[in-house]
Amino acid sequence: MLKIARWRLILVAIVSLLGIAFALPNFLPENARSQIPGFLPRQAVNLGLDLRGGSHLLLEVDTTALKHQQLENIADQMGTALRDAEPAIRFTGRGVVGDTARIRLVDPNDMSRAMVAMRPLARSAASGNESTTFAQGADGAIEARMTESSLRELSRQAAQQSVEVIRRRIDPNGTSEVNIARQGDDRIVVQAPGVNDPEQLKALIGQTALMTFHMVRDLSPEEMQSGALPPGTMIVQPYPQIGSRQEVVERRVRFTGERLQRANPSTDQRTGQFVLSFALDGQGTTQFCRITRENTGRRFAILLDNQVLTAPTINEPICGGSGQISGNFSAESANQLAVMLRAGALPAPLTVIEQRTVGAGLGQEAINSGTLAGAIGAVAVVLIMVLFYGVFGVIAIIAMVLNMVLIFAAMSMMGAALTLPGIAGLVLTMGMAVDSNVLIYERMREEQRLGRGPAVAIDQGFSRALVTIVDANLTTILAALILFAFGEGPVKGFAWTLSIGCVTTVFTATIVTQLMVASWFRAVRPKQLPI
User: Fold this and answer.
1) Which one of 198, 265, 354, 529 is least enclosed by Cβ atoms within 10 Å?
2) Segment 74-101, tens digit of pLDDT
3) Contact at 8 Å (CB) between 390 and 530?
4) What is the CA radius of gyration of the chain?
5) What's the gap between Cα 245 and its chain centre?
6) Topology of the domain comprising 6-48+360-524
7) pTM higher than 0.70, yes or no?
8) Which of these, 197, 182, 510, lies nearest to 350 by C-alpha position?
9) Of 41, 54, 50, which is closest to residue 414 (Cα–Cα)?
10) What CA–CA distance (Å, rounded) separates 425 from 420?
């Protein structure tokens, strides 16, 4: 006990210096943090929505649109299955009617073979469970319907995928200020501290951002006079404030934005206008090269959410895997589109069912209240520890201060957000840290009453209390992990702060306090412990 191991001194010194370095920016004003040298940490703890203020959105997956989209896919799969049959089965009238994907056979006598061809489509490739039911309709029609269980699973997957897409859109740098979580099967909660206008979030989130490439159908004068669209075509409107005019395009999608590897705003060197530069992955480069080679001289339209961005002419095959999209872009619109395309397309439209703004004034009031509560608790703890344990109480207070510093350092390093429940976790950690020292000191008192010498009492106090301290904090960490796994928002903030506090408490109580007590004993050599 009286011999201080060198590795302990080195460990405490390194951890303490790093803790102070990472925690210091939290106690400096913004202008002072910006002047910290680049090789030193300058990241401060992020404040959560309840402290900093910001925007709250509750979104819901549009299950109707999602179902229609899936039925369109099923109709396409039905057509492919009939074409791949040996011999091929002729069909017509493929499409979606209500909640049914329908396809009509040219020869109703092929019905039995067609139903056999549909069997592989009845089960989900991912789960193996039945996802689609097929039935024979009138006049050689085959009707497909989704099962309720498959629709629920599809909604759940769409919500989870949307969480990741939204995170990449509004939090592209990976900071932890934004809280995005799935709620139930088809709802998503978005909380963005510091964003006081929910419309900013809705502008980024509300668009599906599905980019598709279609061949333009230039109508002949006769077709224009007839007013009827040629089969397999559709009219698409220009993208707001970017596209130039409506176009008639083929319904068939030749290429999708899923093959985009990079999308960045830039300027055209010839015209000086803002454009959207893009690069494709290897497979996308091959596909795009083939499409542009086969359609040289024709126009193709680039659609975003079924609205035209631009419709240029293919002058030559584009095989380099990169290009640019021109339009009436501003710097802001080009950057916003680039962010959405890099993040990927939403699997289904999202509907805002609740939005609200949390004022920063409420957050400042919470900070002031939390600071006041913490200060009162800290003063009470200091007085009680000094009155009950004297110099050992002072040592416990120093360890507690270091404990708080390490907690702020850990949260700053990990980019964690501090919420109002997180402040409660800090106050609770403060009490638990002192409680660990109380266990040690009371054990030392008991050993001294049994006639043990000061050195033995100190040694027994730390060694016998260690098991209790580790057990108590380990149990608390397990409870906090459960809260973190199953909780959302503020509950996670409380669990996160509490977990970090348990780890730092064990370190400061069993190593830092022990070193300070041993150093004091070697310097004073008391005949009896003043405890």
Assistant:
1) 354
2) 888 888 889 888 888 998 878 888 889 9
3) yes
4) 33
5) 37
6) Multidrug efflux transporter AcrB transmembrane fold (1.20.1640)
7) no
8) 182
9) 41
10) 9
